[in-house]
Design brief:
single chain, 246 residues, alpha/beta, six-stranded mixed beta sheet, four-stranded parallel beta sheet, 10 helices
Length: 246
């Protein structure tokens, strides 16, 4: 396996695709996706554009759909939900399709929509994702952070490091071989996670998007998103933009 980390969709190569892409948006799209599928959602369908989301969801039975929209950290008017994993309880999402559009994470999914294997990861489902990757052993893997409107985000890179550290421990006995390192960002992500692994919530409070969510009273969301290995679910793309539980 050859591993690459890209901090934002804009930084990915445009002339090639990997065998597997792991999309990360810890605050909060990929955490919400994991929570929804773990709670029994039929699927999560992601859109970068809200108008397209509205049009596509109109073709779905009202009782079988939920619209989740977020811009700037806040819920979009006219949507049932925002982008909080805490809203994705079984009584809300069971058997329904979640149509979701967020500021950053859904753009990242769109960038890798044609990759043969697309999965989403966050801290809460880290172990499940690493187990899947260890079983499949794709030749090339991109871990793609969503960032914030095109810029680097601490929490996505820390999550990339968490994934890489566990993969290294399980697959290579704790020592990442040099021929598995595709770019320098791999080493940087692992180092960031190692520095903060026992203080992830504190890191989120330092992060710019964490501070943005705190101003929106998102303390509980930050605490939920900072947990490690609490959900045994791997969201995988079954068709472009549509994620189901593996």
């Amino acid at each position: 396996m050859k591993l690459f980390v890209y901090h934002t969709p804009e930084l990915t190569p445009t002339d090639t695709v990997p065998d597997c892409a792991i999309v990360v948006d810890v605050l909060r799209a990929t955490t919400t996706i994991a929570a929804a599928l773990a709670a029994g959602a039929e699927a999560v369908q992601a859109f970068s554009d809200l108008d397209t989301l509205m049009a596509a969801s109109e073709r779905w039975p009202v009782e079988k759909r939920l619209r989740a929209g977020e811009r700037g950290g806040a819920k979009v008017d006219g949507c049932d939900l925002g982008n909080s994993p805490l809203d994705c309880t079984p009584d809300v999402v069971q058997g329904r399709r979640l149509f979701i559009s967020t500021t950053n994470g859904t753009r990242a999914l769109q960038r890798v929509a044609t990759v043969p294997i697309v999965i989403t990861a966050t801290l809460v489902n880290r172990r499940a994702v690493v187990s899947y990757v260890s079983q499949q052993q794709p030749e090339t893997i991109w871990i793609l952070g969503s960032g914030w409107e095109g810029s680097f985000s601490l929490e996505d890179t820390a999550c990339a490091g968490a994934l890489l550290q566990l993969l290294c421990d399980q697959h290579w006995g704790g020592q990442l071989p040099s021929d598995a390192i595709g770019n320098d960002e791999v080493i940087g992500a692992i180092a960031l996670f190692q520095q903060w692994q026992s203080r992830l919530l504190e890191l989120f409070h330092h992060a710019s998007h964490g501070q943005r969510l705190l101003r929106l009273n998102g303390d509980a969301d930050l605490a939920y998103c900072a947990q490690l290995d609490t959900l045994d679910v791997v969201p995988i793309q079954k068709e472009p933009g549509v994620l189901v539980r593996y």
